[in-house]
């Protein structure tokens, strides 16, 4: 798999997606500037690269792109969460009862009557794949990689306070959303852009 970086049109797309999202997404936009980060995506080798993000990607024939890309994203998330000793948070418009039918042991917390599924740094690739399988295939959903100060932890089924929720949003360093007609993902990372992006 290859990682490709995009420019300002990908940031615009991401902003529009978050602006139509739920509480985590809209609060994220108030606390962060997307321009302070870079946008990238994983694609199979021999993919035809676009001149602009809005041109889309042309996948090589015979490639099972969904499986390959999900595996690459899951590994990316695992590496990030282990490195940061943090949390993966999935904001979803789905009902808790529907999620529990698919994955009964999924960890979650509640804020403002919204359910957020999460994993901590003890998770493995299978846990992340399950989270993506259950929570990501919907346009309203987003995955955030974040952390809490050492004294704070998230407990299963906990109804967290506004203060803790704000800390989680503020300390979010990466976002993952679906793109390319659900054939791929965009990764926003809060960092200086070192490589030349595709404008």
Quick overview:
With 199 residues, this protein is an alpha+beta fold.
Provide a descriptive summary of the structure in words:
The chain has 199 residues and is of the alpha+beta class. It has one domain (2-189). Helix content is 34%, strand content 22%. It is built from six helices and eight strands, in the order E-H-H-E-H-E-H-E-E-H-E-H-E-E. The chain has an eight-stranded antiparallel beta sheet with strand order 1-2-8-7-6-3-5-4, with helices on both faces. The longest helix has 20 residues, at 65-84. The two termini are 21 Å apart.
The helix content, as a percent range, equals 25-40%
User: Helix and strand string, N-terminal first?
Assistant: EHHEHEHEEHEHEE
What structural category arises from helix and sheet content? alpha+beta
Overall pLDDT metric: 80
Strand order of the largest sheet: 1-2-8-7-6-3-5-4
Shape: globular
Work out the helix count. Answer: 6
Q: How many domains, in number, for the residues?
A: 1
Radius of gyration: 16 Å
- Quote the distance from N terminus to C terminus: 21 Å
Strand content: 15-25%
| Unreliable segments of 5+ consecutive residues | 192-199
- Sketch the major β-sheet: 8 strands, antiparallel
**Count of individual beta strands:** 8
């Amino acid at each position: 798999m290859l990682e490709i970086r995009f420019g300002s049109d990908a940031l615009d797309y991401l902003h529009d997606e978050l602006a139509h999202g739920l509480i985590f997404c809209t609060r994220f936009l108030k606390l962060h500037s997307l321009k302070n980060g870079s946008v990238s995506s994983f694609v199979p080798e021999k993919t035809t690269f676009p001149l602009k993000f809005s041109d889309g990607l042309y996948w090589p024939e015979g490639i099972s792109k969904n499986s390959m890309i999900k595996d690459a994203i899951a590994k990316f998330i695992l590496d990030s969460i282990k490195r940061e000793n943090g949390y993966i948070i999935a904001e979803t418009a789905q009902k808790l009862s529907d999620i529990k039918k698919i994955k009964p042991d999924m960890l979650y917390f509640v804020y403002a009557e919204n359910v957020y599924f999460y994993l901590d740094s003890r998770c493995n690739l299978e846990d992340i794949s399950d989270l993506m399988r259950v929570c990501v295939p919907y346009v309203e959903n987003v995955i955030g990689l974040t952390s809490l100060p050492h004294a704070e932890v998230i407990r299963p089924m906990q109804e967290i306070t506004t203060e803790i929720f704000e800390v989680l949003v503020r300390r979010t360093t990466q976002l993952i959303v679906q793109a390319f007609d659900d054939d791929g993902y965009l990764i926003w990372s809060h960092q200086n852009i070192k490589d030349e992006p595709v404008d």
